[in-house]
Write the structure tokens for this entry.
Amino acid sequence: MTALRMRARDFLNEDQLIAVRQRVTWKGVALIAHAWALILGSIALVAWWPNPLTFLLAVGIIGSRQLGLAILMHDGAHGCLSADEKVNLTLSQWFCAYPIFAETRAYRRYHLQHHARTQQEDDPDLVLSAPFPITGMSYRRKFVRDITGQTGYQQRKAQFLNALGPKEWPHAQRAAHFWEKLGPQLVVNGLLFAGLAAAGVWWAYPLLWLLPLLTWQMVITRIRNIAEHAVVPDSSDPLRNTRTTRANFLERLFIAPYYVNYHLEHHLLFYVPCYNLPRVHRILSESRYAVSMEVQPNYAAVLRLATAKPDHEDRPGKLVSGARRARAGKEVGGDQAAGGF
């Protein structure tokens, strides 16, 4: 199966392309600062007024901003945080990727394959969308694993073991490999812990950084993965193999930060900074392509599509086909939550 190819000039004229392609460093910095302001503000709120309500609110907001940092790292992987590549990589690595135990360059190598082969058999992210639709019971099981930290724990455990390398390697080689894979991430997280401890709120690191990272961030990463490519109308049509999901204020606050919901527009023009995607959406919505675009009104509508299989067809533990299972090495339904975008 081969996907159709469409050029940028099929959608926008030259002046529009020049405008939406513009990468403005201060805008990228402002989005990163916004994410960290919400994170630190949420921690301050709990420290000032500790109670279950503010704690749950903080976990939801911080988890969504951790996804936001992943989204901004993704922009950095596309060179969109700054026109200066050194500045772009510095912003993406040290302020977005490393705090959430990610790495921009490794992600970029993997992610560009997804753009080149979207929803085709050799798309590395196909495992995230291929199993859908599933049953409501199946999704509820996944939600429970995500919100209780089981998914996050398994992912971090696999990341840690991968960083250690094979047991038969010499200790020095394993140590060097570990530092290469996770060294900067641990340094940045150590600095984050030290800063919180110096402010008298050391407890915020495990409770308001690691906990959201392992729980709510996992929940909304799965929802984002589902929304982007699951149950799309036509895997070969670039207007219909990727989905844009409209998002209200609460969805943008807790589920879909920093314009990640404009995923169709991102796939059509992947070098456009995220803050220009709403403009691309408006242009396309007024074009002859509007009727063909896969757009859903909200995330609840997407989840209804993705859980449309009747519960009597539920097969707990059922896996994808042998070839896909071997390639993915993951459970059906998108536990490879770090992929996507």
In short: Residues 21 and 272 are 5 Å apart (CA to CA). The longest strand covers residues 244-245. Residues 319-337 have pLDDT under 50 and may be disordered. The radius of gyration is 20 Å.
